[in-house]
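Memo to structure team: turn this sequence into structure tokens by end of day. - J.P.
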Amino acid sequence: MKIAITGATSGIGVEKVKALAPLCERMFLLVRDEDKARNLIQSLPSHQEKISVIYCNLSDLNSVAKAASTLRQKTTKLDLLINNAGGIFPEKSITTNGHELTFSVNHLGHFLLTQLTLPLLISGEGAKIINVSSEAHKAAKINKEDLELKNDFSSFKAYANVKLYNILFTKSLAEKFGNKGIAAYALHPGVVNTNFGTQSKGIFKFFLFLAKPFMISPKKGAQTGIYLATNQLSPKNNGGYFKKRKLAEVTQDGSSKMLRDLLWEYSIKQIQPFL
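Reply from structure team:
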């Protein structure tokens, strides 16, 4: 099995690398912090030679395109792509490519990466794409004219929206590429005790403080992702959203074909210069 994963150097990403490294032939860590990635590899002495580090900054589409090109040079096939990285940001920030940061890191960067690695995934048999979403998607409020919330930004709303986008993207992948052997799944890892959200302000930071005693460990938070990566699921679950290793309900917006088509068309338009 050949695996590529983003967000591999912290939280549930580290735990997924530790669990999946013994099972794979090659593993590619697509990361911003290459030193942390190399330290992680050093902690896995039995698997060092099979793990490669590729620089990838999801807020910079040029970097994502370059990472995908490097990945295509290193392998002709990929069995599993785990779009694991994500973040919530306290203030609106526009990337060098002109996109809102939350949208770029949590959705558009992964959307481009997935598009550019599809030839590697389709060339195999039964490849999987796993997108880390969240129960926060239930708080999403989508403005069809402003999908990135450039004009009406709030930190938590932007995060809730992109977590919904992760689900919509997953359903689109299953719909468009299921007949080519692609299985796509979204998941909620649980409320995990990591550094996530430490830069947050206001009510969301307060809620994080209250939730801290009830948070689960990164190891436990990684379990649903590991389950999806290592188990063959029924084709009827393709495009599904999982929680605690079981298929879970999504909101009405999460099942909306109109919204997923709108998101797909918008996203394709944004990444067109990099295809």
